[in-house]
Amino acid sequence: MRPWACIPLGLLAFIPLAAPAQLPLHQAAPSIQSFTILEGLYADPDYESLIKLLQRAKLIPTLSKLNGTTFFAPTNDAIKRHSSSNVLWERALDDSAAGLPDNLQLRLRQELFYHLLNYTLPIIPTEQTPQEHKTLLYPRDTTEPPTQEPPPYPPWMPIPNGTLGTEPQRLRLSYRDNAVRAGVDASGKDGVKAIKDPVEAANGLLLGLEEVLEMPPDLATVISRHPQLSYFSRILTPEMARFLNDTPTLTLFLPVDDAWQALPTWERVYLETDFALDDLKLIFNLHAVVPNEVRWSDSFTKEAVKLPTIHGRELEIVPMEENKVKVSDAELVERDIYASNGVLHTVSSLLIPEGAIKHTPEKYLLGLNCTEFVSLIHSVNLTYLINDPDSKYTILAPRDDVLKLFGHHELPHRGSEELKRVLEYHFLPGKWFPTKLEDGMLIETALSEPGLNGDLQVLAIEVTDEGKKKDQFKAIRFAGAGVMGEPVEINNTVIYFVSRPLVPPADVMETALPNLDLSTFVAGIFSTNLAETLKSTPKITLLMPPNPAFERLGLLVSNYLVSSSSKADLERVIRHHAVVGVEYADALVNGSQRTFGTLEGSDLHVERRGSNRTAFFTPSGGWADMQSELQPLNMLTQTGVIHQVSDIMIPRSVHLTVGKLVRAAKGTTMTTMMVKAGLGWILNGTAPPEGSRWAEMGLKGSGWTLLCPTDDAFKKVNLTDLYANEDRLQAIVSQHLIPTPPKSSSPPTGSGSLAVIDALVNNRPLPLDDSATYTTLQSAGSAYGDVIVRVLDGADGGTVIGIKGARGRDGAQDWARVVAWGRSTTGDGSGGVVQIDRLLVPYTPSWYVEYGGPVAVGVGGVVVIVLFFLGVRWMWRRDTTEATYEPIGGFGHDDSDDS
After folding, report:
1. pTM
2. Which helix (H) or strand (E) holds 204?
3. Of 237, 241, 121, which is closest to residue 182 (Cα–Cα)?
C-alpha cells in the first residue's frame, strides 16, 4: 500500500484556496471551505503552464462548473516537452501570440477534455489490470468551423455527439512499477506515469502526470502505428485510408500480421500491388462492422452477438472461457484499441469465408513476377482477360526482367490502341498444353483483327524436341519468342513465360520487306502504287514469287513487266497473285478447294500431286505449260498471310505480244523496220492484212519468234538507204522471223526431250541447242534463209546464231550472240523474241563463190584428161621408135633349135 494513500483527505482542507474565477497565477491560500480542483491547480507551481492553456481554451469557467471530476493534469515539464512538438500548444503558451481562432480553440479544448473525467475516480488502481473510464472528450472534426450549439460563450461544455456517436472517448488506468499510469493499453502496458500524489478537492480529484495524454488519433493512424498490423497498413489504399479517417462510429476486427500467412504467397504479393483494389475492398468490408455505433468489447463479452459487416456477412462473436472471445472462426487477440472515430480489435485469423476471394489469372501473374505485364493490361482496359477465373486462356507472359531488358521504347505507349493490339496477341483462347502443340501449328489469339474483318489473328508455333528426354518439355516458340522454363497451370489458365514481348503481324508490305528473296516482286508492288491497296484490303492471301522467278520468266518478259510503260500489265500480274480470302498452308495443301479467286478477277487453279500433296497453281493466262509450285511460308500479316510460289503467274488479261517484248529488248529500230516492211501485224499478234502477200501465203499473226537485234546493232547500218530499198528491207526482216509451231503439251521422248523441258523451264520461245537449225521467213526465197544455233565452249561461252551455209568474211563476227529472250502469250502461246547483239544480213554468195567450184572442177577434169592422153601418146611413140636387130638372111632353123 502506498504511504500517501494513508493521509486523511480532510487534511487537504488546509491547502490554501484560490478564487473560483480567472485570477492571477499567485494567490493567497484558500480557505478550507472553498477548495476546488481549480484552486488546487493555482496553488501548485507545477501547473502554471496548464492554467495558461485552460485560460487560452476558455475552460476556466467550465472547470469551475464541474461538480465531481477527475483531472489528469500534466506538469509544466510535461507541457514543455509536448509543446516542442505541438505547434498548437506552443502558440497557446506564447503570451505575444494573438488569440486562437475558434477551430484551434476547439482543438485545444478537446485535447484538454481528454484529461478530464466527468466523475471523481472512485478507486485509484492498485494493479496492472486496467480500469476503463469515460472522459469528457467527444471527438469532433476540428478542421471545420464549430457549430453554434452550444452558444459560443463560456462555460464551454462538451457536446455529447461526435465521431464516436453519443459516446465519449475512453481512457484506461493501471498501476505498474509502483505508479499509477493513465492511457495504458488493454493489457495495462505503456501509458503516462502519475508523478504527483493525488489531491482530493471538493469537486473532484487531481493527479499530476509526467507527460501529456495524447488523444487517440483516427483509425488509419492507429493502424499505421500498431506493431501487429504492419501488413494491413502496407496494403492500405488511399481510398481505404480516407474511409478510415472520415467514417464515424466505425468498429474494425483486423487480422494480425501472422494471420495473413494463411494466404498463398502470390495472393499476398498481389494484395501489395496497385491492382488489388477490389480484393482489398472486399477484405476490408468483411472486417468492418456497419458503422451504426461503436462496438467496444464490453458490448459482446457477456453474451454472444452477431454484428453485420459492411460486406453484408455477419460476424458471430461468442464469449468463451478464461475471458476469451471467438470472432467467427478467429480468436480475439487484442480488444479496444481506441481511435477518434471508432474502435479497433485484432483477431488471430482472416475473417474471409471460403470462395470469397477469386483466384484470378491476374493474381497469379503478379505473384509470378509479371507485374509490369499486368500494369500494361490495366492501361488498355483488358482486365477482363485476367480477372475471370472461369474463362480458359493460355497466357504468353513476359516477366518483369524481360520487359525491363527490352525497355519501354520498344513497346507502344501506355493506353494506346496499338499496345492493346500487342497485348491481345499474348492470349490464346483455350488451354494449350505442350503435348497439344505441334510444329507449324497456327493458333488463334484474342486479337480481333480489323484486317481480317474482325476474325481472330493467329500466331505460329515452332516445336523442336530433338535431343530432349521424354520427361522434359519440348522446346517451344510462340511467334518466334522462346519459352523460359516450364509452363504453369492454374485452374483454367496455362501460363508460358516468353523470352520477349510478342509482336502481332504487321501489314503485308512491312512483313515482306525484310525478305530479300522477294525484293523484286516487292519493288514491283511499290512501282504500281498497289502497296496501299494490298495493305488495306481485308482477308487476302498473297502469293509472292522469289527473285529467280523473274529470270525463269525470261529476261525480256521480266524487263517488260518492270518497265515504266507496262505498269497496267504489272498491276494485273500482281493482283493475280492476291487470292481473295485467307488461305493458310494447311488449307492449300490438304484442302479440297481447287479454284481460288484473285483481286485481278480471274481464278487460279490448284492441283495437288504426290503423297505429300504438293500444290501447283495454274494461272488463268500465260502459257499452257505455265505452273507455279506452292512453297508454304505462313508469313502472317494484318490482312491475311503470305506464301511463296516458285514462278510468276500471268493472268489472261495480260497479253505479251512480240511488240511488247521487242520494246523490252530495246529493239525500236527493228520495230520500225518490221512496220515499214509490212510485217507490223506480227508485233501485235494479229492476222496479216487482207489482200497482202502475207495473207496470200497463209501466214498467221501468232507463232513467230523474232530474232531482234538491239538498237546498238544498227550503228553501222545506213537506215535511210535500207528503208528506201523495200525488197532488201523485207529480206532482212524475214531473215529474223522464225515460224514457231505450238509446243507439245507433253514433252517428246528421245534424246531431245531434255532440251524441250529445259526450254519450258527457262521460258524460251524455242530451244537453243547446239546445231539446232530453224527455218525463217526468208527460207522460202533463199537457199541461205535458215539459221543455225551454236553453243560455245571455253571462257567466252554463250550461245550464238548465224545463217546456215553462209561463208563469213570476219570469223566469229559473222555470228550474233544471244543476249536474252522472252516468250509471247498471244495465240497458242508459241513464239516470242530472242534478243541478239548483231544484225543478220541475208547471205548472197559472190559469182566466184557460187560458180568457182564447178568451173574449177571442169577445168581440172579437162586438164587431167589432156594429161592422160598426152601420157598415152608419149608412151606409144616411145615404143614405136625404139631400135631392133636381126641376123643377115634371117633366123635359120638351126639357130632356132640351138636356142
Report:
1. 0.70
2. strand 204-209
3. 121
